[in-house]
Design goal:
Layout: H1 9-24, H2 42-53, H3 55-70, H4 91-108, H5 117-144, H6 148-155, H7 159-179
């Protein structure tokens, strides 16, 4: 099996820890914006999972979280959970979190390099926002019956919050890298030349 995708015990522990972080970020609840999908802090967790754990492990943390939600645990903001959330207007956004975390990890950890602020910010915004929108908007459109264009316009309300979450994820990731690089796995395995 490819080294990048082999999960060891410490990797599983970190994956479960980030699934728990996603759950904790749901505690503050949702901010309704007048549409069927609320603003939540949980996309910050998606960004952090990809940035800290990397592509495969970050996506795995989101999968673990979503499996728990599917099993009925009320871990989504507002205490939502169960199979019903995967057929509602936010279903595409939830599924988009998996690919979003993966893309964040790909960009932040590009060519096995350590995180730097600009790549972290780029990865968090592209993966944690744009990729999630690319899946969430068409699915929401199909479920609600609104056109993709109208759904995209209503989803623009998420952009300011996602920009703030991108900044927060970048600051947290870089602070964690400086304070505790072991949180990122095997930091000695990173390429140091040319960030």
């Amino acid at each position: 099996m490819d080294e990048a995708r082999r999960f060891e015990t410490r990797d599983i522990t970190r994956i479960v820890a980030f699934a728990a972080i996603l759950a904790v970020l749901g505690i503050p609840g949702a901010i309704p914006i007048g549409g069927p999908v609320p603003i939540t802090a949980q996309t910050l967790g998606v960004m952090l999972a990809g940035a800290v754990l990397g592509a495969w492990r970050g996506a795995a943390a989101v999968v673990v979280f979503l499996v728990l939600v599917l099993a009925g645990l009320p871990l989504l903001s507002g205490g939502r959970g169960g199979a019903g959330v995967f057929v509602g207007p936010s279903a595409g956004f939830l599924i988009g979190w998996i690919l979003g975390a993966f893309v964040v990890g790909l960009i932040v950890r590009l060519a096995n390099r350590p995180p730097v602020w600009w790549r972290t910010a780029l990865g968090c915004f592209v993966g944690g926002a744009l990729v999630v929108y690319a899946i969430g908007i068409p699915v929401q459109s199909a479920i609600t019956g609104l056109s993709v264009a109208k759904t995209a316009v209503t989803s623009a309300a998420f952009l300011p919050g996602d920009l703030l979450k991108t900044v927060a994820a970048t600051v947290i990731t870089m602070a964690l890298w400086r304070a505790y690089p072991r949180a990122f796995g095997n930091p000695t395995g990173f390429r140091r030349a040319g960030a």
